[in-house]
Amino acid sequence: MAAAFDCDVLICGFGPVGQLLALLLGDLGVKTIALDEAAEPYVLPRAAVVDDEVLRIFQAVDVDKAVLRDAQVQRTVTFVNNRGRKFEVLRPAEGDLGHPPLVSIHQPSMERTMVAAVEERALVDVRWSTRLETIDQGADHVDAWVRPTSGGPAQRLRARYMAACDGGRSFVRRTLEIPFGGSTYSQRWLVVDALVDPALENVPHPHFIGDVKRPTVSLPMSPGRHRWEFMVHPGEDAAPFERLERIRELTAPYIGDESVEFERAVVYTFHVRRAARWRAGRVLLAGDAAHLTPPFVGQGFSSGARDAQNLAWKLDAVLHGAPSRLLDTYETERRPHVKAMQDLAVRWGGVVQTCRPATGVFRDSILAWLERTGALDWIKDRAKPLPTCGAGAFATAPARLPFRRQTGALFPQPDRLDESLGLGWSVVARTDAAATRWRTQGIHAVVRPRDEWLSRRGLEWALLRPDRFVFACGGQGEVGPALAALRASIGPGVRSSAPAVREAVAA
Ligand SMILES: Cc1cc2nc3c(=O)[nH]c(=O)nc-3n(C[C@H](O)[C@H](O)[C@H](O)COP(=O)(O)OP(=O)(O)OC[C@H]3O[C@@H](n4cnc5c(N)ncnc54)[C@H](O)[C@@H]3O)c2cc1C
Question: 151 lies in a domain?
């Protein structure tokens, strides 16, 4: 007789990506165990910024306001050239996702917020100080052998699926012998975090300093905190960089009368890597376990957050009877977007890390030219890859060009729209007739007669997946084909009227 399941999904690694996935699964009513070999959330900051896409995911699990309480909105980003001239290189446009586009955070506070929220999810069982030691997959299950880090006997946990959120050195990825390659790019940077009072007057927002002798990044984090990053040249000994006198010397040009207390200084090697595959049977890799991105555009955790959101509803759908091939679309959809973010980080990192004086002169003259011609203004609003998918779980193939996409696009969020959509599948319709048609099919629908996204495209309705990506859209004539596509790709895994799910979980 088959042994009973301990949970539907076992999350190995309870860092920020595991925490967010646990929240999303908990809200969907998925019985989850999350384990971590650490005794508590990591206490030192790593991620410094998150974007509006991530804040929208936080909103879905009701932690956005708490995260924002300890955050700082950034409205501009400056590049300082080798001669000290300043250029505005990013002016994150107030987007249409319902949140500020760039926000400095304090990762430990953000993690504490998520961990506290997970404690309120009755269906999520968190086990700290518990290390995963062995994985064994069967036809319908994954067995994980885990042991308390204090010692004692190993225990077997049986789950239907496992999410490996166990970080860049992922034990799960190594055990499954999944190569972690893609690029040999690696660069060492000294990362210094400090408590500051008041905020540094000289650096009120993120600055990239293109000093060819020592490329530097300086940015305010959450209120009362500041970070510096200093490039360590190949061949330089890292150890002296972590000494207080050296840190004082490097940071002195940025500090006026403010009081500064250094919290930590550590030399990191930044990598660009992607796992060769993100699914092995019933095990799925997410976050740093699947990809590593250098932090120049602040997208490491943010990419992991998108993974968690993409994966959560698909796991829930498959647990409710959707074909298991739906899980393959997780990598199909996420990998190109992760790669686009990595490419952006590498390109921008290349600009910042210029060390040859002649190349620096060339770089600075190009920047000046871009500014003179107005091209920089165009670039600074469009540098970030759009939140769209070129292929995946959609009724029809998304358009080839990202800005043309309808299916495959992330639906905007005017007026905190998501709160009226619930947690599952939903329809935004311009007419009562379209909404009624979908409601009779059991899909929750809201009517927005003047919805801008729909009106601009001449559409009557859009069917949104639980992650708010457009699965299908059209007029009355397109409802039938969209329903057929929904049945074929998701089948009984379609869950709607999600507020009822929240109530069921609470009950
Ligand atoms: C200097 C720096 C700056 C950064 N800046 C940004 C930024 O501005 N914006 C951004 O979005 N990202 C940034 N990042 C990246 C971001 O910090 C990471 O992407 C993010 O922390 C990864 O989260 P994760 O949950 O995938 O992995 P981790 O945070 O590494 O968590 C993995 C967890 O798995 C646990 N674990 C591992 N093995 C086992 C096992 N066998 N059994 C049980 N548990 C296990 C670990 O204890 C750990 O808690 C930055 C990173 C660095 C280093």
Answer: yes
Structure tokens at 407: 């299916």
Reference 140, options 3, 27, 36; nearest CA is 3
E strands present in 198-258: 207-209, 216-220, 225-231
Ligand 1 mean position, distance from CA 50 (Å): 14
CA distances from residue 453 to 76, 180, 296, 307, 406 in whole angstroms, order as listed: 27, 39, 32, 25, 9
**Chain position carrying tokens 């091209």:** 375
- pTM over the 0.85 mark: yes
CA distance 216 to 80: 10
Task: Give ligand 1 pocket residues (Cβ under 6 A).
Answer: 12-18, 35-38, 46-50, 131-132, 165-167, 171, 191, 268, 287-288, 295, 298-302, 304
Reported as a single tens digit per residue, the pLDDT across 122-153 is 999 999 999 999 999 999 999 999 999 999 99
Residues 56 and 141 in one domain: yes
Q: State the Cα–Cα distance between residues 2 and 4, nearest whole angstrom.
A: 6
Give me the domain span that covers residue 336: 7-71+105-180+274-343
Residue (of 227, 249, 229) closest to 240 by Cα position: 249
Q: How far is the CA of 125 from the centre of ligand 1 (A)?
A: 21
> Number of structural domains, the chain?
2
Q: What is the mean pLDDT of the chain?
A: 94
Specify the DSSP element, H or E, that contains 367: helix 357-373
C-alpha 405 – ligand 1 centre gap (Å): 32
- For residue 133, the domain's CATH number is 3.50.50.60
Instruction: Give the Å distance between the CA of 214 and the centre of ligand 1.
Output: 27
* Mean pLDDT of all residues in 365-394: 91
Q: How is residue 221 written in tokens?
A: 């984090």
Mean pLDDT over 321-339 rounds to 97
